[in-house]
Amino acid sequence: MIISDRRIWIPRALAGSAALAGIAAWIVYFHAGLVLSHFDAKAHLVVSRRVFDNITPGWQQVGAVWLPLPHLLQILPAQVDLLYRTGAAASAISIASFAVAAYATARLVIAVTGSTVGAAAAVAMLALNPNLLYLQATPMTEPLLLAVSWLALLWLYEWVVQDRDEVPRRLGWALVAATLTRYEAWAIVGAALIAVVYAMWRRGVPVRQLTRRAIRVSIWPAAAVVVFLVNSRITAGRWLVVDGFFVPDPTYQGQAWRTLVSLWWGTHQLSGYTIEIVALAVAAVLCARVFVWRDEAAFLIPVALLAAAALPMSAFLDGHPYRIRYMIPLVAASVTITGIGVGLARRAAPFLAAVLVASALIESPPWDVHAPMLVEAKIDHSNSEGRRHVTACLAASYRGEKILASMASLAHYMQELSYAGFTIADFVNEGNGTIWDLALETGPAPHAGWMLAEERARGGDLLAERIRRRPAFTAHMVPVCEGGGVRLYKRVGEAPFRNAE
User: Fold this and answer.
1) How far apart are CA 317 and CA 309, in angstroms?
2) Under a CB-based contact definition with an 8 Å cutoff, are residues 340 and 349 in contact?
3) Burial class of residue 227 (count of CB atoms within 10 Å of its CB; 0-12, 13-18, 19+)
4) In Å, how far from its chain's centre is CA 334?
5) Strand positions, DSSP E, 244-349
6) Are 485 and 386 a contacting pair, CB within 8 Å?
7) pLDDT tens column, 196-220
8) pLDDT > 70: what percent of the chain?
9) Separation CA 42–CA 59 (nearest Å)
10) Mean pLDDT of 41-64
11) Hey, is 4 helix, strand or coil?
12) Residue 244 has pLDDT above 90, yes or no
C-alpha cells in the first residue's frame, strides 16, 4: 500500500513530534553533563577530529574498525573546538536521524497496514523510550543506523509493491548509507534483500526479470562493502578487522544458547517484556501470512529488521564484552513490528495501541534515570573523575612534547584532554603508523616525552601489557601520577634518539 498525498502529512507530523522530544531530551542530558558520558561517544568524535588534527593527517585516519559514514559526516564540525568538546554537531545529526527513523517507521507501518493508529503507536513507543532518547542525544552511531536502515527497508517495500524494474536512486543510496554506518545493517540489508527476492518471486515476477532486479538492487550495498574492505586493507593491512580491539570475555564466548538468552534479556530490559513478546508474535504472524497469501509476500520485508540480532549474537559468541547497547536496533525493530501488529488489528487498533503505549510507559518510562543505557553510559564516570588528577599533572609540566597513548583504549581520554588545550596532534598513537611501531619496538623515550597507559579497563591496554611483559620498555621514563586507571609516565634525562616531534 502506498501512502496517498492526502495522508503524507501524518508521518511528517509524527517525525516532527519525535524531533521535539529528541531536542528536549538533549537539553536535559546536556545540562546533566551526560551527552558525552559514554566513552564511545567521545571516541567517535576523536575519529572525526584526527583526520586533520594529527601528526600524520589524511583520509586513512577514518580507520577500519568502525564503519566510516558517521565519522565522515562529522569531520568538518569536529575541527571546531566548541563542537568537538561538546559534541553538539554530532548530537544534532543524531537528533535529525531520530526524526528520520520515526518518519520511516510511520510510513512503513502505514504502507503495510494502512493504519495511522498503528503508525502513531509505533512512533510513540519509539520517541518515549528512555534508552532511545538518550542515545539520540549523543554522538553515538545507532540513531544514524536506524534512520538509513529504516528508510532502506521502507523504500525496498514500496519498490516491491510498485513492481518496478528500475531501482530508485534514493533506495540505492539508502542501502549504501546503511551499509557504511554500522555492521548491524549488513545483516538487516542482507535479510531484506532475501525477503525482496522471495516477495517478487511469490508475486509472480518472471525468473529472468527477477534476476535482473536482484542484481540491480544488490549492487549498491555490495559496492559499498567492497569499498570499505579495500579501505580496511589499505589502512589496517587486513580486509576486515574483527579482533584485537577487545579483551575476550568468557561469559558468553562459544555459548550459543546463553548468548541467545542474553539478547532476549537485553531487549526487554531496554523496551519491556510486552513489546518484545508482541513483536515476536506479530513477526510470526507476518511470516505465516507471507506463505499463505501471495499478495502479502512483501510483509516479510519488515521482519528483516530483526536480523539486527546477528551482530550481537556473533560478537558475544566471539567473546566481545557484553554491551546492552547492541540490542538498541532490536528495540526499534520490535517497536516497528509491534506498530504493524496494531495496524493489522483493524477495529481493535485504537484499544490495542492504548494498551501497548501505556505498557511501554509503565515498563520503560522516558523519565527513568536508571534506564539501562544511562547506567551503561555512566560506567566510566568514576574513572573520568580520577583522570582529572592525571590531566592536572600533565598540564602543569607539559612543554609541547609528544605523548604516547593507545587510541584503542584512551581515545575518550584524548577528547577529555581537549578541555585542557591538548589536540590529537599532541599524541603518538596507532594511527601514526611507523612512528607508533618504532615506539613499541624501542620504548617511548626516543619518540615521546610522555606516555599514558590504561592499566585497568579490559585488563589493561597494549602499552600496559608491554610494560608488564618487558620492564625495559619504560627505560628513561618514570611514573609521575595516576588516576582513573590511567598512569602517566614522563621522560627523564636526554632522549636516547631523536624525538618524533
Assistant:
1) 12
2) no
3) middle
4) 18
5) none
6) yes
7) 999 999 999 999 999 999 999 999 9
8) 94
9) 20
10) 88
11) coil
12) no
CA nearest neighbour of 76 among 93, 98, 64, 100 = 93
Nearest to 327, CA basis, from 366, 373, 284: 373
Q: Which residues contact 59 (CB under 8 A, 6 or more apart)?
A: 51
Q: Which stretch of DSSP H or E encloses residue 147?
A: helix 142-162
> To which residue does cell 547492541 refer?
326
Q: What is the largest CA-CA distance in the chain?
A: 82
Q: How many whole angstroms separate alpha carbon 44 and alpha carbon 305? A: 25
Residue type, 84: Y
Q: Is the pLDDT of residue 456 over 90?
A: no
Q: What share of the chain is helix, strand, coil (3-state, %, to 5)?
A: 70, 5, 25
| CA-wise closest residue to 312 among 324, 300, 294, 296 | 324
Q: Residue for cell digits 559514514?
A: 69
For the purposes of burial, counting CB atoms within 10 Å of the CB of 461, is it exposed (0-12), middle (13-18) or buried (19 or more)? buried
Cα–Cα distance, 351 to 410 (Å, whole number): 50
Q: Which long-range contacts (CB under 8 A, 24 or more apart) does 465-471 make?
A: 466/440
Grid-cell match 502505514, residue found:
110
Task: Rank 183-192, 255-264, 408-417, 439-448 by mean pLDDT and report only the highest.
Answer: 183-192
The reported pLDDT for the residue numbered 430 is 87
Angle at 476 between CA 471 and CA 479, to 5 degrees: 70
Which of 62-71, 163-172, 432-441 has the highest mean predicted lDDT (pLDDT)? Answer: 163-172
Task: Provide the whole-model pTM.
Answer: 0.92
Cα torsion angle, 409, 415, 421, 423, sign: positive
Q: How many CB atoms lie within 10 A of CB 298?
A: 24
Name the grid cell of 118: 498503528
pLDDT digits (tens, 9 = 90+) for 143-172: 999 999 999 999 999 999 999 999 999 999
Mention every residue, 6+ apart, whose C-beta is less than 8 A from residue 441: none
Grid cell, residue 154, equals 521502507
Helix runs in 345-459, H state only = 349-363, 372-377, 381-397, 407-417, 434-442
**CA dist list (Å): 338 to 12, 345, 355:** 20, 11, 12
To which residue does cell 494498551 refer? 355
For the chain, counts of helices (H) and of strands (E):
22, 5
| Residue at 279: amino acid letter | A
Under DSSP, is residue 188 helix (H, G, I), strand (E, B) or coil?
helix
The answer for residues whose C-beta is within 8 angstroms of residue 314's C-beta and 6 or more apart is none
The residue with cell 591496554 is: 461
